[in-house]
Amino acid sequence: MHPPLFGGVNAAILTALKPDLSPDLDRMAAHARWLLANGCNGLGMLGTTGEANSLGLFERKAVLEGLIARGIPAAKLMPGTGCSNLSDTVELTLHARAQGCRGVLVLPPFYYKAPSDDGLFAYFSEVVNRVGGGIALYLYHFPQQSAVPFTLDLIGRLLKAFPGAIQGVKDSSGDYANMKAMVDAFAADGFEVYSGSDEYLQRILADGGAGCITAASNANSHWGGIVYAKRTGAEADAAQAMLTATRKAATSVPLISGLREIIARSTGDDGWRTIRPPHLPLNAAQGDAIWAAWDAAGALPLPGLTQAKAAE
């Protein structure tokens, strides 16, 4: 069985923005380089944390092309390509394949609520057939956000109908029992299960999962890298405790805004606070609170971040 394509720690990377709210590719690429040098094996870009659904189709393509043009290896990137319609999903997936990406993360069609498994099977059948192979599809299970879950039965049907096309899943439900059920049902056949929650990294690796794709990895990837490398023992346990503490700190305020605040304060770069509406930057009290929470966890200063930015 081949090793997982994105095995390890993958940051759901923030999308840097300019004052006019257009993507800031230089700032984002610098952050990507730091992540890949500090514990990340790959980058899940243009997902929830990357505000993909606040960006237009042309902008999403430009962000992917811009990172690659700035030296971020396409093989390290897993762009989100799932949209609420079939045509855009296929177009973004084909674009990612053309840029040399090995896999994409695909939301279900999320506008219409409570679709049947038959309806979702028909949708993903169209995606697979229209894409035609050459790039791995990863399902994005985030029912709290999309309101459209992937059931075990649906995953099993897709794997049977399209062997080799559906490579894995990111489970952001926060329900470890569901993650474990996916591992137990499908991992033996090479299906890659990634936790979307930092607190489960050590556990899912022990149970046969592939790793994680998480928002907090934007700032805690140093410790995620230790967990992935060591797996067990005192050092791994301490690093996992740090992942759990920083995840709790990150979710104590609006998550995307909070991570932007941590990066902004760590680098001295106020531009990281820029965010697209309807999201808003943190207010001063919220910013002080999340900074204090990360500090209390012992996670500050972020290893190598200030120095890395100063050297740009």
Automatic annotation (TrEMBL):
GO MF, one example: 4-hydroxy-tetrahydrodipicolinate synthase activity
Signal sequence, renumbered to the chain: none
UniProt-annotated catalytic positions: Y140 (proton donor/acceptor), K170 (schiff-base intermediate with substrate)
Annotated positions binding pyruvate: T49, I213
Pfam families in the cross-refs: DHDPS (PF00701)
CDD domains named among the record's database cross-references: DHDPS-like (cd00408)
Entry keywords, A to Z: Lyase
Membership in a protein family: Belongs to the DapA family.
Protein name: Dihydrodipicolinate synthase family protein
Organism field: Plastoroseomonas arctica
